[in-house]
Amino acid sequence: MTARNAIRDTFFEECEELLEALVEGLAQMAVGAGDGETLNAVFRAVHSVKGGAGAFALEALVGFAHRFETVLDGIRAGRIALTPEVMHTLLRSADHLAEQVEAARDDRAIAPEVTAGFLANLYAILGEDAPEEPDGAGDDPCFGFAAVALDLGPLGAGAGLGADGAGFGVGSSVGPGAEVIGFPGPGPREAAPGWRVRFRPLPALYAHGHDPAALFAALADLGPVTVTLDLSDLPPWEGFDPAGAWLAWTIRLAGAVPEAAVREVFDFVQGLCLLDIAPDDPPAGPPAEPAAAPPLAPPPRREARAPEDDPAAGPKPTLRVDLDRVDRLINAVGELIINQAMIEQSVLDLTLSSEAEVIGHVEGYRLLARDLQEAVMAIRAQPVKPLFQRMSRILREAAEATGKQARLVTLGEATEVDKTVIERLADPLTHMIRNAVDHGLEPPAARLAAGKPAEGTLRLSAAHRSGSVILSLRDDGAGLDRARIRAKALARGLISPEADLTEAEIDNLLFLPGFSTAEKVSNLSGRGVGLDVVKNAVTALGGRVAIASVPGEGTEFTISLPLTLAVMDGMVISVAGRTMVIPVASVIETLRPDPADLHGLGPQDRVLSIRGRFLPVIDVAQGLGLPARRNAAQDGAEGPPLLLLVETESQSHCALVVDEVHDQRQVVIKGLEANYGAIPGVAAATVLGDGRIALILDAEALTAQRPPADPAARPPFPNAGVSHASP
Amino acid sequence: MQALDPARQDAEFVTFFAGGQSFSLDITHVREIRRWTAVTPLPHAPQEVLGVMNLRGSVIPIYDLAARFGLGPTPENPRNVVVVAMIGPQTVGLLVEAVSEILSVDRAQVQDTPDIRADSTRQSITGVIPLQDGMTRVIDLAAVIQPRGRQAA
């Protein structure tokens, strides 16, 4: 790697942090919690991204960051009011900045018109400031937004200005903040004394059929006029209300005209506009202020700059370390744990007296090794905050694409999860957010009709619960349409018509491959790849996903994940004389049932009767293709088998037959895929205290091997088995 | 183990016995040779996959080379050794009866596999090298461990 590449990598790493700070600051501002320092932090973040990008000649990025920075500076100086619209633009601009950084990192290009669209929004906020800064605009091809002068020549002549006067065009883009429209009047322009008229029509003015052009023409009759159009209040095109009144003008009228004459021009629009007529300053006076008073202008708080290294607020010192090094450390510690267990076993085998010194040392060694392991695992743990921040971006994009209004509320951002888990959760979460916006939330009109706010709320939360991480995404939408899900599953042949499904079973149909309730394929979701993708990704991480829905109130998806991918609480069992491990998380209880509670069903299957329910009994040895030590016929002689009640996604509950349960301990998970391949029914392997390898069972796969896998489609009678002789 | 010959016109092969026949493997694949230790059998595995072994924390599958070449399972013997070999990112172990020597030969001496009837054997061997007392079969490690064998169980 060249030095330049290394610096470049560092830049992008820093960008990640800066963008994180940016999004966080903006989020605070959006809820009104930010102060002057928040704004400063946001400004600094954008500024630093710009600075770094400049060093790598990322011009489009620099140009956009520059304009973004200018807007933020305007807000900081109190020139620009922080209206909800401005806030929205800031958030979207931050999204776009992140996208540009990602594109630059991956050497992708973003279509210039996309950037131009975001730039246009920024220009719109900047109002008349834009043309003052040709430096940024001039050298970048993306900056095609110089002021456009509209040629309204015929108006100036006064002749064609009657009822058929030309309507006002606004140019094809909303880019420039101000457009200067020249009205060459009859007199010489240098006439010094004059009037400055600020004129801002209200919607009623247009509703009454008045035309500003006619008014300007009337003024032009009095003397030479210069009309400046103020577009700063123009909202973005999406959500643009054409019936609104968005434009304001400043008209400078040169020549000694009595004020009454000027006022007379506006007689007919009295009360239909905001009008301010004042003696004009010298011609080189400052450009007009936006006519409307900033409704939410924050007081300029420049004085509130806290020192940057404030120990209370500042981030803790951190060290950037190559992930490979951390992984090496984790591997070594994993080995240490195994080695410790082996030594412990050897010492035990010596059968020393309990006072022996070595036993105390071994115990100390064990505790130290555990401490070390915990400390090392904590290195990999990262807060979910950056992931959640990305999701708010996904939400805004999804809301924009679907025309719905939605906001994301996040909880538990500080929850720490293994870095790999965070990385691999990004895709499924993205999918779930899009899904929730696209299918979960109703359109604004339907929401209002249902007595809900037009804006939908998605709650994304993370929490630690008994050794797992629980992520949940809840929407306040319409809830699942179970009749439709059922119908769709029926149409796809996923269930049989007579299947009697509980609500939970219907909900879980959503996770079947290829299931999609979207009536038509949209850009966002509904490409036939549905929630099964989410489920697969979560399952691959050793987690589960569940769904709950209340009609009219919304749907909640819950993902539960192991804290780390490297260590797991396992129950050590033996099956067919072999030591194996089953994740404690999937075991609900262990029991040795009364033989009377076991019932044969069909030639080879049995069910367990427990608390009024019948659960399928699955022989683990048989599931793994191992010679079973006992079989159904011998049960009577040997007593009932030991059963583990497990909970899985596909079969809600199931009883696994095992030989013995030995112990419960933390095991280091070792993948089998890298050197061998996937084995059905086996999730991974681990190394036991004696150095031997034990297989970690995959309860999900073991139970799913039973045909048919889908409980909903289970025929009334199990298929008669032919492979095994019945007793 | 010997270092690689820097001249490189020669190739080096580790030769070993399995099922009474001599096999060899390009030394660049061979990582170490270990004493046989008990393995943990894998479910749904073909006959030649004996199970997995702990190699300093890595879980590596052990293949019975004799069984893989249809020569019957290697009888248990404390002198059996495991040739730990790497191919790409994969580490595997080959159970053999004994390692005999490191053979340094000119690459040109490696002859194409004679056209024998047993397809599975021919496809798992890249060639043969004549020896004073017969020949050694150069195994194609990738072919030996490819998953096809697993499904054939």
From TrEMBL, chain A:
Residues 280-318, 706-727 are annotated as: Disordered. It catalyses: ATP + protein L-histidine = ADP + protein N-phospho-L-histidine. Residues 280-299, 708-718 have a biased composition (Pro residues). GO terms for molecular function: ATP binding; phosphorelay sensor kinase activity. It holds the Pfam family H-kinase_dim. GO terms for cellular component: cytoplasm. This is Chemotaxis protein CheA. GO terms for biological process: chemotaxis. Residues 1-104 form the HPt domain. Keywords: ATP-binding, Chemotaxis, Kinase, Nucleotide-binding, Phosphoprotein, Transferase, Two-component regulatory system. Its EC number is 2.7.13.3. Involved in the transmission of sensory signals from the chemoreceptors to the flagellar motors. CheA is autophosphorylated; it can transfer its phosphate group to either CheB or CheY.
